[in-house]
Amino acid sequence: MVFNAHDILMGLGGGMLIGCGAALFLLFAGRIAGISGIASAVARIEPGTHYKGSVLFLLGLIVAPQIYGLFHPMPDIGVTHSVVLLSAGGLLVGFGSRTGGGCTSGHGVCGLSRFSPRSIAATLVFMSIAMAVAVFVRPMIYG
Amino acid sequence: MNLLVSLFSGVLFGLGLVVSDMIDPARVIAFLDVASGAWDPTLGFVMAGAVLPMIIAWRIAAKRVKPVCGDKFPGPASGSINRKLILGAATFGAGWGLVGICPGPAITALSIGGLPVLLFVACMFAGFFVASLTARWL
Questions:
Q1: Which of A13, A49, B33, B127 could, after both became Cys, cross-link A134 (CB 3.0–4.6 A)?
Q2: CB-CB under 8 Å, B34 with A96
């Protein structure tokens, strides 16, 4: 296990920023910060859902790394997956989050915190499947 | 005002994903791969840190009639724990476990992740669209 104080503090602090963003969105705009739902609203896949607010929320997400980059070295992310894997992953994540009515943010952050039975069930299912895939399926693909 | 709040909420949310390093798929996989021997618990702390302010926010919302600049608060979570919820969550989990990317980090990483992230996001939107077509049969 890799336990280091810096990562834990950054994790807790970053998590609180996420939670504060979601809390602000709820208390001021009256909306749930579920990214799959907001992104679907932006794509106008589901009609009649807060279009402008959703566009601005997504815009906020997109500019965030640039704002961070003004004060710190730009975060370095290594997305080294193959085209096939990225496409399959994207399709599964998109289809699954819409069909299940939420992802890590909608069910995980916003649903768990209101103790919604649906969100608790969804989070338990996607967490355990994701762990099973990461442990058993990824080694088969990556060798 | 509503729109300004939406933008600011998105910025805070995105900064949180950057600060916690959850926009790096390798960090997410290091949490999900519980059997690697080098398990990285960071994602658990991120979830805990994010849920805490939201528990307080739901408490505040319960005491107020309406949001500061909106019409109404979201109603109680609708529907039961049904086949669609479980099927969707399982499919989402499979994709997430495969690549370590979920919708929030994917969109946040758009400006720094280059073509791979763009491809993922395009396919994710295709997935949203397919789900909207199949929803009535599930």
A1: B33
A2: no
**pLDDT tens digit sequence for B62-115:** 999 999 988 889 887 777 999 999 999 999 999 999 999 999 999 999 999 999
Question: Residue A59 is part of which domain span?
Answer: 5-142
Cβ pair B102:A104 closer than 8 A? yes
Question: Distance between alpha carbon B39 and the CA centroid of its chain, in Å?
Answer: 22
**Chain A residue numbers touching B129 (CB-CB < 8 A):** 43, 45, 94
Alpha-carbon distance of B56 to A56, in angstroms, equals: 24
In whole angstroms, give the CA distance from residue A56 to residue A63.
10
Radius of gyration, alpha carbons of chain B: 17
Interface contact A61, partner B, CB < 8 A: yes
Nearest by CB: A105 against B79, B85, B104 = B104
Whether the predicted pLDDT of A141 surpasses 90: no
Task: Give me B3's structure tokens.
Answer: 């729109």
For A101: left if phi > 0, alpha if psi spans -120 to 50, otherwise beta; the answer is: left
Give the dihedral of Cα atoms A42, A48, A49, A55; nearest 10 deg.
30
Number of domains in chain A: 1
